[in-house]
């Protein structure tokens, strides 16, 4: 073959390779994950998480479908203090099933009894939250799980150190192999497992749900029924404007952020800027995510700073119209026109939102937490 012919053949081959490469679909890692975690899918038995009455279909990320093995692994990781720097704190330390998957303290204690500035939000139904944390800084349960591990006032560890300790434990190596089909543990597989477990922490089928969606007119008291009307009436409580109730399901949150004046002093100055710290939008100043009201009767204290010890105290805040500040939500206005009987009816309705936790969300037998004396007193 003549040199020019050989050169032409080579160039034609290279052109074909480039053309083929350009026409292939690209595989991009999801934000916040590494490439390895993006292509690894669970290796175990697929599970259809049962959704109780009153909740919508469960959103599941395509790269983390639940399996029996990832859920079991995530449950163990959730309760294991090995994830903290000194083996003293687990996820359950601040999100305890005994207290509605939150904490009795207004502000939780981390490693070395260090504290932050915000109350632990509940894990219950967090699978339906479009953004995680009070200020919405995490886009998913997976990304949320990364935060406390590396937070110096929470677990005070590092992602690399957690992976190193898990990789050194033959039991965890075997569990990750069973759940993910790989011997190499990564932080993304750790948090994907935790998130899969957290998606099973669903609370519905409460007395309210059986009344409203199950059409059992005896499921809640007459007082609670009156409270429901007050809750949804725009001219009365108007609570459902943020704690939404739909035709087919009720999340009791609009998944939005609102300024209620919590933490504002007499001059309207706020001690926590909330969502503004994430978006830098003036409209988000002092705004925090609307929490679900599910199982509210066992989740005291309340608000992002845990400043209200009882549901009645939280209701009193709304009765007074919140704390005045320049960014107070337009939907907040005084409810002092409600009679004392009407306020009691609202409380009775809120009580009807509490139900038992699903099975298999407590700690594995060998990771049962030690009772905290301080929590017993509150």
* Quaternary organization: single chain
Shape call: globular
Q: C-alpha Rg, in Å?
A: 25 Å
Q: What is the CATH H-level superfamily of the largest domain? A: Cytochrome c-like domain
Distance between the termini: 90 Å
Helix content: 25-40%
State the CATH topology of the largest domain: Cytochrome Bc1 Complex, Chain D, domain 2
Number of domains: 2
Q: Major sheet, described briefly? A: 2 strands, antiparallel
State the secondary-structure class.
mainly alpha
So, CATH architecture of the largest domain?
Orthogonal Bundle
Q: In percent terms, what proportion of residues is strand?
A: under 5%
Low-confidence stretches: 1-37, 371-378
**Overall mean pLDDT:** 90
Give a description of the structure.
The protein is an all-alpha fold. The chain has 2 domains: 35-202, Cytochrome c-like domain (Cytochrome Bc1 Complex, Chain D, domain 2), CATH 1.10.760; 207-351, Cytochrome c-like domain (Cytochrome Bc1 Complex, Chain D, domain 2, Orthogonal Bundle). It is 35% helix and 1% strand. It has 14 helices and 2 strands. It has a two-stranded antiparallel ribbon. Helix 3 crosses helix 8 (187-198). It is globular, with a radius of gyration of 25 Å. It starts with a helix and ends with a helix. The model is unreliable at 1-37 and 371-378 (pLDDT under 50).
In short:
This protein is mostly helical and 378 residues long.
List the helices and strands and how they pair.
Layout: H1 3-23, H2 35-39, H3 68-79, H4 91-94, H5 141-150, H6 159-167, H7 170-180, H8 187-198, H9 207-212, H10 222-232, E1 257-258, H11 276-279, E2 288-289, H12 311-319, H13 340-351, H14 373-377
Antiparallel strand pairs: 1-2
Helix pairs in contact: 3-7, 3-8, 5-8, 10-13
